[in-house]
Amino acid sequence: MVRFHIRRVLTNVTICSIFGFIFTLTFYSKSYNSSNSIQINSSSLPPKLYFETEDSYALRLKLQAKIKFGSKIKEADPEFFNSREGYNESYLDSIPLVREDTPDFRPPVCHNLTYPVSPARVSVIINYHNELLSLILRSMYSVIRAIPPHNFHELILIDDGSDLDKFPHFHIIQQITETLTVQVRHIRFDSNEGLVYSRRYGCMVATGDTLLVLDSHVDISPGFIEPLLAITDRSYQAVASPIIQFLDNLGSTKVWAHNESFLGFDPYLTWIYTPAPKGHDPYHGASILGGAFVATKRFLEEVDYFGRGMVGWGYENIEISLKTWMCGDAVYYVPCSQILHYNAKRSPIKHGDRFKPAFYLHNAALVIKSYLPEHNFQDFSLDYHLQKRSDFDMADYDHVIRENKRVLEKNQCSRDYPWLRKKLMPKIESFDADTLVAHTLKVDGDCVVVDWSPDKKSWNGTVVPCGAPKSIRKNLRMTIWEEVRIHDRYCLDFGRSTFYFNLCHFGLGMQRVYFENNRLRSITNECVVRYNDTNRLGVAPCYPRVQSNYTIPFIEFEVMYNRHDRKNR
C-alpha cells in the first residue's frame, strides 16, 4: 500500500513537471504585438549561449517568461510609463533578454572590415540603481555575448544601493551570475553613492588591462568591441567611444543617431552636440558620452581615473575627456562600433540626498576649478549659482582640486586651455550663430511670459495679453537642435507636468521639441497644454483617454529677428 502511494505520488509529480514545462514554453513563446494582443509563436527556443550552463540557460528561459507575464503585457500601450524610471516597462519586458533582431545602424562598409586580433583582456563595468530587471539582464547578456571569449576578462556589476523592497533584483541577478561560466563580480553598496562614484570604484577594482564602461540599459551586437580595441591597442592613452543610437521610450524606433552628431562643450562647459564627419573612419571629438567608452587601465591609473569628489552623475565624461586631451592621446568616436541605448522619459533627478541642479553645478565647478582657468567662466557666475542652487561649499573640496592639479603636473600635461580652445572650441562656439530665429511665443493669440521661480529653480511660463509691456516678455529661440530656449542656457523641458525651462543638457530626450500643426510636442506624445479658463500652461498627453481639464492651444512663433540681424536686436 505504501509503495502504491509512493508510485502514485511520483507519477503525479512527473505529470505536473511535464505540464509545468509545457506551460513555461507556452508562456515563453507568447509575444506582444502592436495590436496589444498575445499570440502564440511556433518558433523554437533560443539557443544556449557559450557562457551559460544548463542551469543558467534554464533560469533565463524561466525568468523571461516570468518577466513578460509579470508585466501584464496585455495592458501595455505607448502612453504608459512606470513611475520609477520613466520607461514603458511592459513593452521593454516583452523584448527577449537575448535579442536576435538587434538593429544594426553601422555604415554598410563596416560589415566587411576586419581588425587585428587584440590581446586585450576586457573588464566591463556596469552600475545600476533601481533599474528594470529586464534592462540590466539584456545589457549583461548582450555585452558578454558581443566580446570574443579570448578578450572577455570579467564583468563587474554594481548595485548602487537599489531599494530592495521595490527592486529585489540583486538576489535574482546573483543567482544567474553564479551559474555562468565567465567571471562576474556582483557588488552591492548599502546606500546610493551615485553613478560617478560607483563607476570610479568599478574601474579601480577591475583587473583587466582594458576597461569598458557601460550604462545598464543598452543592447549590444557582436562586432562592436573590435574597432574600439584597435584604437586603444594602438595607443594606450586614447579613449574610444562607440556610436550610441538612442531609442525612444518604447525601445522600438531610433530617436536620434549619435553618428549624426558628437558631444562637445561650449566655453561655459555646457554640453553641446555638433555635426559629425561623414563616413566610417574614427574621428576626434571634444568629449565622450558617459554611457559607453573604452580606455586602458594603465592610462586611467596614470590620470587618477575620473570623478574624484564628484557626486550624482554628470561631467565625469567631460573630466576624463579633458584629461585625455591634456595628458594623453585623443578622444575618438568610432562609427563602426555602435550600441543601442534605451532612452528613459526623464533623467534621474536624485542620487543619494542630492538633487540634480546641485550635483550638476558641483561637478561642473570641480572640473572648471581643477582643469580650466576660472576667469573664462565669469559670465557663468559659477559661485553665484552654486550658492543659490546648491548646499555645497567648494572650500570643502579644495583638497580635491589640488589633487586634480597635481595629476596634471605629475603627468606633465602640456596641452592647456588655449590649445583646447583652438583645437576643439571653434566648431562649438559657432552654435549660437546657428540659432535660427528668436521669437515671441504666442498661445491662442496671447503671449507667453516666462519668469524665474526661486522655489522651483527654473523658468516657468504663463500667458498674458500681448498688449502687456514687452519688457516682461522674454524672447525664445528655436534652435537647429529642435530646442526652445530662453537666455541661451535654459530649454523647454517636458520632464514635468508644468511648463518650465530647465538647464539645457544637450541630451535631447525630453528637451527635444516637435513643432507640428501649431502644437509643441515631445517624443513621448505629450503636448504643451492650457488649462481650462486659466492662464496656466502645462504638459499633458496630446491624446487624453478620458475627459480632461485642458485644451491643446494654437501655438505660434512671432519672429523677432534672425541670425543675420542679431546686431539690431
In short:
This protein has 569 residues and is α+β, with helices and mostly antiparallel strands.
Structure overview:
The protein is of the alpha+beta class. 28% of the residues lie in helices and 25% in strands. The strands form 8 sheets. It has a 7-stranded antiparallel β-barrel. A 5-stranded mixed β-sheet has the order 5-4-3-6-13, with helices on both faces. Strands 7, 8, 9, 12 and 14 form a 5-stranded mixed β-sheet that branches. Strand 18 and strand 19 form a beta hairpin. Helix 1 crosses helix 2, helix 10 packs antiparallel against helix 11 and helix 10 packs across helix 12. It is globular and about 70 Å long.
Keywords:
single chain, 569 residues, 28% helix, seven-stranded antiparallel beta barrel, globular, disordered C terminus, disordered N terminus, alpha+beta
Q: How would the blueprint of this fold be written?
A:
Blueprint: H1 2-28, E1 30-32, E2 38-40, H2 54-70, H3 89-94, E3 122-128, H4 133-146, E4 152-160, H5 169-177, E5 184-189, H6 195-205, E6 210-214, E7 218-220, H7 225-234, E8 239-247, E9 254-257, E10 261-265, E11 271-275, E12 283-284, E13 292-296, H8 297-302, H9 316-327, E14 331-342, E15 350-351, E16 354-355, H10 356-371, H11 382-389, H12 398-410, H13 417-429, E17 437-443, E18 446-453, E19 458-464, E20 476-478, E21 484-486, E22 490-493, E23 500-503, E24 514-516, E25 519-521, E26 526-531, E27 537-541, E28 550-551, E29 555-562
Parallel strand pairs: 3-4, 3-6, 4-5, 8-14
Antiparallel strand pairs: 1-2, 6-13, 7-14, 8-9, 10-11, 12-14, 15-16, 17-18, 17-20, 17-29, 18-19, 19-23, 20-21, 21-22, 22-23, 24-25, 26-27, 26-28
Helix pairs in contact: 1-2, 10-11, 10-12
